[in-house]
Amino acid sequence: MRELLKYLKAYRKESILAPLFKMLEATFELFIPLVVKQIIDVGIGRGDTGYILRMGGLLVLLGVVGLAASLTAQYFAAKAAVGCATSLRNDLFAHINGLSYAEIDRLGTSTLITRMTSDVNQVQTGLNLFLRLFLRSPFIVFGAMVMAFTVDAKSAVTFVVVIPLLSVVVFGIMLITMPLYKKVQRQLDRVLLTTKENLEGVRVIRAFNRQNDEMRRFDGENSQLVDMQVFVGKISALMNPVTYVIINGGIIVLVWTAGKQVNAGIITQGAVVALVNYMSQILVELIKLANLIINISKALACAGRVQKVLQEKSSITEKEHAAVPETAGPDRNGQVPKVEFCNVEFCYGDSREPALSAVSLKVKAGQTVGIIGGTGSGKTTLVNLIPRFYDVFGGAVLIDGQDVREWPLEQLRGRIGIVPQRAVLFAGTLRENMKWGKKDATDEEINRALSIAQAKDFVDEKGEGLDLLITQEGKNLSGGQRQRLTIARALVRRPQILIMDDSASALDFATDARLRRAIREETGDMTVFLVSQRAATVRNSDVIVVLDDGAVAGVGTHKELLESCQVYREICLSQLSAEEVQ
User: Fold this and answer.
1) Given 90, 177, 314, 329, which residue has the most CB atoms within 10 angstroms?
2) For position 332, what pLDDT does the model report?
3) What's the fold here for domain 423-494?
4) Where do the DSSP E strands lie in 57-169?
5) In Å, what is the CA distance from 428 to each residue of 433, 489, 532?
């Protein structure tokens, strides 16, 4: 929590002025019972209409000035709360973007979304209420007690008993509800996860006619959330009736004690009314304080969840003096392997089984490397180590002779073009999507990349050219069209290393063949990694790497592997005819 307080530093003035103006309003409010006392004892007691009107005008003036102070306090509190939440949300978003794949895999996107939205909003609400009420309510509670003693010390003893009792109730309920609100937020994560999975997998759900199952699943998670909220709500709901009972009991004792004083001629009737008003003020303020504490309890729980994300450290960090190696650049002449895997070991998270083990491989500049293997053999894991999306557990991955952990991340990934398994496009024009690969790309460069990716024909058919509007995730395009555009996006930057991670799976064999031929002819000395489960896609590669259960089963050309690698031979025979295999 202390680290989150740094966001208030930019709003020191607002954070001070908001409670001060609220206390100013409270001060005027504390004078009102005394004015009412004077109206009753002096104005009504003596039948002085002029005095009543003057004091009534004073009441109106106190109310207007109090309202002005309240509005000013609200302005400063809102400015500070919204400003802090904005800065927190920006920093949280930037921090999440700085986390590696490993942390995002472990945390999960659903909980990150909840903390970016619901949790930060709750922190904002709690901070707003805190700035407005954290001094005002206690000030009025204790101020009313002090003012009551100025009216009549004997009757005011009731306040000394009532206030501690109320404090025990209020803070006791707060201590019980705070951990429960944390559980509510965790359950909200689960509801969001269920919703996210349902929306992302809507086609699969309908294809298998599982709508009713998903509705039951969502209903179960949602019902659990409701039950938890109702349970914590019932505990919180105890606050109002218990405080009302204590306050009204106090008023009864107060009226009884003060009534005896009036009969004895010790105090006036106006004094009794003033004492009851002060007790009522305490009631109102303690109800406000109770609601404040409930909201602060929620805000603290949410702030803790946000803080946990901010405390997450990325496992991918740059070394302080990271630099581009001298061998890097266009003039390599094949002297240093472009990419080299040196006895690489890798595991996901807390998995006991390695995803990759003892992988060693040298790739020269300009080579096309095909990577093939069964599902779960480690193909995607292997290429994800090149741009350092994950760090190896053992061994090293070298680019231009230097360990990727020694490279500045921006320069490393600036030399690599990646086409992921899942084709992701962003809402906007085609031109805007293509410029993700290169911010200053010209239309000529984009069109060239589209031609290589075999996407130019269908783009031209749409008739809008580079101004073609693409909806979120490219839902207005077919799977094959999305894949070709993601390939073009990677080609726009003309990277030194191009990684195509099973990115042509939605293409027909003819288009796939034209794509591979165009990449080979047009990319010059670009080093290309083709990850695929299709033997036809990788068979013409300069080098083919066969992976089996995280280990290298064979390295060589198509003909060499047919003779030396049983795994590769089985893959080819299962996909190709005997004539095509040869």
Assistant:
1) 177
2) 45
3) Rossmann fold (3.40.50)
4) none
5) 7, 14, 30
